Amino acid sequence: MDEGLSGGCLCGTVRYTATPKPESAYYCHCRDCQVGSASAFTVAIYSDEKSFQLTSGELATYSKVADSGRNLNRMFCPQCGTPLAWTGDGFPGTILISLSSLDDPEAFSPVHEGWTASAVSWCRVHDSVKSFPGRPEREF
Ligand SMILES: [Zn+2]
Ligand SMILES: [Zn+2]
Q1: Distance, CA 1 to ligand 2 centroid (Å)?
Q2: What is the predicted pLDDT for the residue at 139?
Q3: Is the pLDDT assigned to residue 101 strictly greater than 80?
Q4: N or C: which end of the chain has fewer CB within 10 A?
């Protein structure tokens, strides 16, 4: 049985294990991720929702309709506010995890980027990733 990878938030209250899917990590340039991550984009990786297990703490959730027009649940540590995971109506059974929150953020590399229509001009990602102006196609 694959025990997966571990990760957690800034303050250490929330810890999790998950089994992210290789070749599924991507940069999200949507406005909500820019604001919600306090950065130019979020880097997320897909994981089977059943593989995501909290090993300590609880997640707080903020739900909002995303640029896709579907509801997205943004989950974060209620103590320190670190964004950790996302679920949504557009991808049932799947959870997106913040790649940066893995204990080993080098475990995977993003292979595509989505919502580049709202990407900021002052921050570009690597040319080797496949770009989508809207929702990235899932190729895994
Ligand atoms: Zn925390
Ligand atoms: Zn986004």
Answers
A1: 32
A2: 55
A3: yes
A4: N
